[in-house]
């Protein structure tokens, strides 16, 4: 049989990690309020399921947008034929306006600089193909989204070199960490082409501060490399501090006419804020016309269905809808996040303080039997199989410290979340009781041993006394 | 600063194939608004049967409105559906539709089908699965211009052409296959497979069972893969009927070789038969489980919108619609093609005999001023700029012989085609007239020279 490619026969698609294995377990025994109340609750899926009613009701009032009609006239033929990789102009305009709205209109985007792709997955891979050769490297702060191992590396041959971030400073990126990552790449003979950050962060759920963004800009300017800012969660920022986009910082620092302006690229998608991962809408935004031109041609490999472009251009052009959606969606995300945080607190579990995303970065270090990744795996397995919650272990996000878990809250109802918290509390309580009784047992054994040793030595003393008499 | 992929032109989009489109975009024909504009005949799209799809849509608003048969909204399920295994209902309908196109002589298993965002994505993904950078794929020429981008650009795989010529109707001969293979070896390229397009773009012909079986034997013999791009399979409008590679492989003689099916892969799409290129629906079909599994994961980079999967699964489930569509669409394609062929014939231009596709492979060798590609490009420019027709020169399909052009017929209405044919006729007549004029003036010149020579010889004699 003819051999297959190395890409197929190796497992560099990264899908053997526990992140994906947890999903498989969930698939075998999925929780259902009625049909399977004992099943595994899915808390490993970063999806926004809290606000469907809003686009659904918009759809009901705007049947033409889904019905291939414009002003009551059928434009089916036009859409069926539309495969221009420059994208539907009306959609790109609506999309850049929406992106600006998310950023409080503090930046504006040019629709000619946006490239549509089939999801952020496609956008990220395409950017790699545009910016790096096989064997080049990108620096990524850890912990990071497990899918990047596939999206950035698999078919491109690009390497990821992690930037160490730790809980000591809430996992923020520091200058020494950036420099160290760069040096590490050099030591491995890897040419660094850029840094990729996710802002807001997955899995941390935090937005980057202005000084972090400044730091990044200084770093990439100094090293003359690229910066990709994956801002797919930008629309999920539900509390302060507000979202500061890299573009805003560049603008505030008056860097538009400098070389660094063309080395910053944004990735966006409608999968997280609008909760539409099935529609496959992603985008690359770049100030470099060569990148835009190349990425546009590459988008041939993953164009967005014209049917979907049309529907969403109509929806996003409805400013009343987008305003209402954003306000309500943020409120619901915030409410659900605080329910998770307080539920965890009741179980004696803390989270990293977060203001965005569809998940919390949860601190379960105190539940580990030892400060190791083996212990983290053990704990994870217990939570999946005994507690029946699929949460994602920090190791699958390449976290450098064991004991952290990503727990999603936006893909389940309030009731399911409550149940999950109850299960967790029971688990933690039982662990505490076990620990306590284990400790008591240990203590009593110790006491017993001490008594016995004492008796022995007393005996011998007594014996010796007798001898010596 | 940027990758070589971004800064080079290995995307192949500087070819004439694409340049012609650009010129067209600047001055497009419109019956009313721009009747002297350029008529687009370089676009292989099927625009003849929209009314059939549109009428189905009008009768099935729920499919568009994301509602199920009970009128309940399925928006939420669809909005969340991003499973790279694809929508089961959609895959079930697709394999049935594919079987129907093949006269139900083969059956397909939906579990062996991988959806992709168009055949563009499907082809690239297959190459990523079957070959490493620096490996080679053999491709019969003339072939679709987009393959230079789709198969090579980001994969780093090379294309080695199998030269086909008009001497045998551009069929793939064993000799040409072997020759291409050897050429690859000489270039130190490891051949991983052969990719054929059947029905062929740009020829518009279908392959015979013998041809297919020779290819399969070749693939077995060399231990390589065989990709059959069958995107035009639903456009076969005339005999001989379409024979899929799968059907050829089912032959008892070949079946004895147990792994033959694991090296054959089909690419399909709804862009050509159903005329829906905007919806980005392509697929890979393979019996090789490793390929299916890897291609499935890779499809993450180009999934089909769930909104579209839903609409089309609904539509293809309607067997009455698909039967009616196939029949009427094929009839219309045949009629339109015949109109083009007879129109060209009236201008003294012949086409390769074809039974499929959305275009004809047209022989304009006799209109070249010399048997060269420069002459072909000159002729192409004249036809684009003076005649106002964007047709695609054979060189952009890597044809080894100058003078052939691909002319599309299914992307315009009848009256536009008539205008195009009239323009060609006028052009040919003008050219003939000019030729005659040139010939006449050349003859006059030659005779004049001869007479002058003669008379000077006379006078010389006289002077002696």
Automatic annotation (TrEMBL), chain A:
Pathway: Alkene biosynthesis; ethylene biosynthesis via S-adenosyl-L-methionine; ethylene from S-adenosyl-L-methionine: step 1/2. Residues 41-424 form the Aminotransferase class I/classII large domain. It comes from the Eukaryota. Its cofactor is pyridoxal 5'-phosphate. One of its GO terms (molecular function) is 1-aminocyclopropane-1-carboxylate synthase activity. It is an enzyme of class 4 (lyase). One of its GO terms (biological process) is fruit ripening. Keywords: Ethylene biosynthesis, Fruit ripening, Lyase, Pyridoxal phosphate, S-adenosyl-L-methionine. Its EC number is 4.4.1.14. The keyword Lyase applies. It catalyses: S-adenosyl-L-methionine = 1-aminocyclopropane-1-carboxylate + S-methyl-5'-thioadenosine + H(+). InterPro entries: Aminotransferase_I/II_large, Ethylene_sulfur-biosynth, NHTrfase_class1_PyrdxlP-BS, PyrdxlP-dep_Trfase, PyrdxlP-dep_Trfase_major, PyrdxlP-dep_Trfase_small. Belongs to the class-I pyridoxal-phosphate-dependent aminotransferase family. 1-aminocyclopropane-1-carboxylate synthase (ACS) enzymes catalyze the conversion of S-adenosyl-L-methionine (SAM) into 1-aminocyclopropane-1-carboxylate (ACC), a direct precursor of ethylene. PANTHER family: 1-AMINOCYCLOPROPANE-1-CARBOXYLATE SYNTHASE 9, BIFUNCTIONAL ASPARTATE AMINOTRANSFERASE AND GLUTAMATE/ASPARTATE-PREPHENATE AMINOTRANSFERASE-RELATED. This is 1-aminocyclopropane-1-carboxylate synthase. It comes from Gossypium australe.
UniProtKB/TrEMBL annotation, chain B:
Its cofactor is pyridoxal 5'-phosphate. CDD domains: AAT_like (cd00609). Residues 39-424 form the Aminotransferase class I/classII large domain. It comes from Gossypium australe. One of its GO terms (biological process) is fruit ripening. SUPFAM superfamilies: PLP-dependent transferases. This is 1-aminocyclopropane-1-carboxylate synthase. Its EC number is 4.4.1.14. Belongs to the class-I pyridoxal-phosphate-dependent aminotransferase family.
